[in-house]
Write a structure and sequence with these properties.
The complex is a heterodimer. Chain A is of the alpha+beta class. Chain A is built from 15 helices and 8 strands. In chain A, strands 2, 3, 4, 5, 6 and 7 form a 6-stranded antiparallel sheet that branches. A two-stranded antiparallel ribbon of chain A has the order 1-8. Chain A starts with a helix and ends with a helix. Chain B has a two-stranded antiparallel sheet with strand order 1-2. Chain B has 2 domains: about 1-65, no CATH class; about 95-335, MetI-like (MetI-like fold, Orthogonal Bundle), CATH 1.10.3720.10. The longest helix of chain B has about 60 residues, at about 1-65. Chain B has helices at about 1-65, 85-90, 105-135, 145-150, 160-170, 175-180, 195-220, 225-235, 240-265, 270-275, 285-295, 305-335; strands at about 70, 80. The chains are: A alpha+beta, B mainly alpha.
Chain lengths: ~350, ~350
C-alpha cells in the first residue's frame, strides 16, 4: 500500500506537488471512471435477471435468487430471509397478497405462515443470468444478424482493400492524362458524407435490385476515397526503380502490382483493413435505410429494432449490446497502436 | 518460432487470393499486350472508379435534380419537375422570428437544434480534448495506457454508445441511483427537454473525445523540446509558456480538429437517434434525422424535400471542407518554409 502510494506521489525531480499535478491525477482518475465505467456497467448489468434489472437502487453485481424445491409445490419456490420477533430464518414464498406474503418453511411445508414483506429480504448469491446471452441466439434471429454483420464486414473490407489498392497503384505509379483530375475528384468527395446523398443513393440501390440485400449495404461503402488517398500516399514512397527492374525481368504490370507493390504496402493496408472492419461493423444509418426485412438485419439495425420496441426487454438488449461490442473491443486491445498511429498520422476516421 | 507460425498463418490466409492472382495473370498479360499500358491503367482504375461513380458521384449529381421534383415516386423519370418549390417550402416562414409560422417548421426546429448543438458541443469538445491532450503530454507513467483510456469509446458503434447511455440515464438507471445515494432527487434525463439535449451533447463528447485528443497530442509532441528548455532557462512563467509557445505551435492541429469536429457535429445522428429518438417531442431532432424521417421513415415520404434539405446541409459541409483544405494547404506551406 505504501509502495503504491509512493508510486502515485512520486514526481519528476522529486520536487513537491504543483497544482498541475493535482489536476492531472484528478483528470486521469475521472477519465478512467467516466470512460470505462459505462461499458463496465453495461457488462455487469447484462448478467442480471429481469427482476433484478427493475430494482432501484441497482446492485453493483448480478445476483440470483436462491430457490428451493418444496414438497407439495410443482415449481421451486424463491427463498427469503425473514427477521421478526420469532427470530431470523429462511422461508420459501408461496404467494404474495399486497404487503403480506404466505410463506412456508422448506423443512415443514404443511404450515403456511403470513409474513409482512417489510420484514424479509430475498436470499440470494452472486450469479450470472447466462440465459440473457443464450436466448437471443436460440429464440430470436440474433444468430442471423450476427452472421449478416460478419458477412458485410468481411466482404466489404476485402473489396475495399482490393479496389482501393488497385486504384491507388494506378494513381501513384503511372503518369497519364487526367490523373490529377481523378485525384482531385477523390479528394473533393473525401468529406461528402452519406447523409447528403441518401435519397438518390436509395433510388440507385433500388434500381439495381439491391434493396433488402446485404450487397446493397456493402457496395456504396467500399469505394472509400479515404482508403485510396491513404494507400496512394504510402505507395508514392516505394521507389520506381524497383518496378523498372521487375519490368526488365518481363514481369507483367499485374505481377508488379501483386508481387511487388502490394507486399510493400502491407503496413498501410493493415491500417485500412482495421479501419474498414470497425467502420463496416459499426455502420448504422445506411443499413437502417436499405434493410427493412428482419432476416437481412445487421447487428446494429437489429439492436435498434429491439431498443425501439414498445416493451423493451432490457435483459436481452444489454446482453446483445455486449456481444455487438466484442469485436471492436478485441480490435481495441490488440490493434490499438495501428489505429492511433493512423489517426495521428493522417486524421483518418 | 512464433514468427514462423505467424508467417505460415499469413500464407495460408492469403493462399486462395494468391492462387486467384496467379490464375488471372495470363489473361491480364494478353490484355496488356493488346491494350498496352493505358489498358492496364484502365484495368486498375475501373473497379474502384466504377463503384465510386455509381454510388457516390452519380447520386451527388442527381441529388440536385431530385431536389427540384415532387411526388412520392422513387425514380427520377417518374417525378414531376417543380423547380425551386421544395426549397421555397423549406425556407418560407410567415414570420421569421417564430418557427411555428414556418411552412416546414420541423426543418427549422431541426436546423435550430443542430446549430445550437454544433456551437455547444464543438466548443465543449475542443476544450475537454485540449485539456486531455495537455495532460497526456506530461511526463506520465504508462502514457499509452492513459491514452487508451480516453480513446476506448471512439471505436464503439454509435448504436452501442446510445444504448449504454440510455441504460445509464434511465429513470431507474445508474446516474439516478448515484443522485439518490447522495440525497438528491432523481431526474428524468431523457424525458425532460433540456436534460435530453444536454445528454445528447455529453454522450457525443464522450464518444469522440479520444479521437480529437489523439490528434492534438500528436501536435503537442511535435513541438520541439528545446523551445521549452530555453523558456525554462529564461525562467518564463508556465502560463506565458502556454500562451506564447504551446498554443501558437498547436494552432495548426487545433484548427484541423475544430473543422473536423464541426463537420461531424453538423451531421450528428446515430448516437442521438438511439439515445432519444429525437425526442422528447422535437427537443433533440437534428438535420440528418429530419432528412431520414422526411425521405424514408414517415408515412408521407417526400424524397424531393429530403433531397433539398440534404443539399442545404451539404452546402454547409462543403464550405467547412473548403476551409479545412485551405488550412491543410497553409500548414503545408508553413512546413516548407521551415
Amino acid at each position: 500500500m505504501t509502495r503504491a502510494g509512493a508510486l502515485l506521489t512520486r514526481r519528476r525531480g522529486g520536487a513537491g506537488w504543483h497544482w498541475t499535478d493535482v489536476v492531472t491525477f484528478l483528470w486521469l482518475g475521472a477519465g478512467v471512471i467516466i470512460m470505462f465505467g459505462p461499458a463496465l456497467w453495461l457488462v455487469l448489468s447484462s448478467f442480471k435477471s429481469p427482476a433484478q434489472l427493475s430494482e432501484f437502487p441497482p446492485t453493483l453485481l448480478p445476483y440470483e435468487a436462491r430457490t428451493a424445491a418444496v414438497e407439495g409445490y410443482d415449481k421451486p419456490l424463491p427463498l427469503f430471509v425473514v427477521t421478526d420477533e420469532a427470530g431470523t430464518r429462511t422461508l420459501a414464498e408461496v404467494r404474495r397478497v399486497g404487503t403480506v406474503a404466505q410463506m412456508v418453511d422448506p423443512a415443514n411445508p404443511a404450515e403456511v405462515q403470513r409474513i409482512n414483506i417489510a420484514s424479509r429480504t430475498p436470499d440470494r448469491a452472486i450469479g450470472f443470468a447466462w440465459g440473457n446471452y443464450v436466448d437471443p441466439f436460440l429464440r430470436f434471429d440474433f444468430l442471423k444478424y450476427t452472421m449478416n454483420s460478419v458477412f458485410v464486414t468481411a466482404v466489404a473490407t476485402l473489396i475495399t482493400l482490393l479496389t482501393n489498392s488497385m486504384a491507388a497503384f494506378a494513381l501513384s505509379k503511372y503518369e497519364f492524362r487526367g490523373r490529377n483530375a481523378v485525384i482531385l475528384l477523390i479528394i473533393a468527395t473525401l468529406m461528402i458524407p452519406l447523409s447528403v446523398i441518401l435519397v438518390p443513393l436509395y433510388s440507385i440501390v433500388s434500381a439495381a435490385g439491391l434493396m433488402n440485400t446485404l450487397w446493397g449495404v456493402i457496395l456504396p461503402t467500399v469505394a472509400t476515397p479515404t482508403g485510396v488517398f491513404l494507400l496512394r500516399q504510402y505507395m508514392l514512397t516505394i521507389p520506381d526503380e524497383l518496378l523498372e527492374a521487375a519490368r526488365m525481368d518481363h514481369a507483367s504490370e499485374w505481377q508488379i502490382y501483386w508481387r511487388i507493390v502490394l507486399p510493400l504496402t502491407a503496413p498501410a493496408l493493415a491500417v485500412l483493413a482495421i479501419f474498414s472492419v470497425v467502420w463496416r461493423w459499426n455502420d448504422f444509418l445506411w443499413p437502417l435505410i436499405v434493410l427493412s426485412r428482419q432476416e437481412v438485419y445487421t447487428l446494429q439495425v437489429g439492436l435498434n429494432a429491439y431498443a425501439g420496441e414498445l416493451n423493451v426487454q432490457w435483459h436481452y438488449l444489454l446482453a446483445t449490446t455486449v456481444i455487438t461490442m466484442i469485436p471492436v473491443v478485441l480490435v481495441f486491445i490488440f490493434l490499438q497502436r495501428f489505429i492511433t498511429a493512423g489517426i495521428a498520422g493522417s486524421g483518418l476516421k | 518460432m512464433a514468427v514462423g507460425i505467424k508467417h505460415l498463418a499469413g500464407a495460408v490466409a492469403t493462399a486462395p487470393l494468391t492462387w486467384l492472382a496467379r490464375l488471372i495473370d495470363p489473361v491480364l498479360r494478353l490484355w496488356q499486350r493488346l491494350a498496352g499500358r493505358t489498358g492496364m491503367i484502365a484495368f486498375f482504375l475501373t473497379p474502384n472508379m466504377a463503384i465510386f461513380g455509381v454510388f457516390v458521384l452519380f447520386p451527388l449529381v442527381i441529388n440536385v435534380a431530385y431536389s427540384m421534383t415532387t411526388g412520392g415516386a422513387l425514380f427520377l423519370s417518374d417525378r414531376r419537375f417543380v423547380g425551386a418549390a421544395q426549397y421555397q417550402r423549406l425556407l418560407s416562414c410567415a414570420d421569421y422570428s417564430a418557427i411555428s409560422t414556418c411552412q416546414e417548421d420541423q426543418f427549422w426546429t431541426a436546423a435550430r437544434n443542430t446549430a445550437l448543438f454544433v456551437v455547444l458541443q464543438v466548443s465543449l469538445l475542443i476544450t475537454v480534448a485540449t485539456i486531455t491532450a495537455l495532460i497526456l503530454n506530461r511526463d506520465l507513467k504508462a502514457r499509452s495506457f492513459w491514452r487508451a483510456v480516453f480513446f476506448f469509446p471512439v471505436l464503439l458503434s454509435p448504436v452501442v454508445v446510445g444504448l449504454i447511455w440510455r441504460w445509464i440515464l434511465d429513470r431507474n438507471g445508474l446516474l439516478n441511483a448515484g443522485l439518490d445515494a447522495v440525497g438528491l432527487a432523481p431526474v428524468n434525463w431523457l424525458i425532460e427537454r433540456g436534460w435530453a439535449f444536454a445528454a445528447a451533447i455529453g454522450v457525443t463528447i464522450w464518444a469522440h473525445l479520444g479521437f480529437y485528443a489523439l490528434i492534438l497530442l500528436a501536435g503537442l509532441q511535435a513541438i520541439p523540446r528545446d523551445l521549452y528548455e530555453a523558456a525554462e532557462m529564461d525562467g518564463t512563467p508556465h502560463a506565458r509558456v502556454f500562451w506564447r509557445i504551446t498554443l501558437p505551435l498547436l494552432m495548426p492541429n487545433l484548427l484541423v480538429v475544430i473543422v473536423l469536429s464541426l463537420i461531424r457535429a453538423v451531421q450528428v445522428f446515430d448516437e442521438v437517434f438511439v439515445l432519444t429518438g429525437g425526442g422528447p417531442g422535437t427537443a433533440t431532432l437534428f438535420l440528418t434525422q429530419y432528412i431520414y424521417e422526411v425521405g424514408f421513415a414517415s408515412l408521407l415520404k417526400n424524397p424531393g424535400l429530403a433531397a433539398a434539405a440534404s443539399i442545404l446541409m451539404g452546402g454547409v459541409l462543403i464550405a467547412l471542407t473548403l476551409v479545412q483544405l485551405g488550412l491543410g494547404r497553409r500548414n503545408e506551406k508553413r512546413g516548407k518554409l521551415k
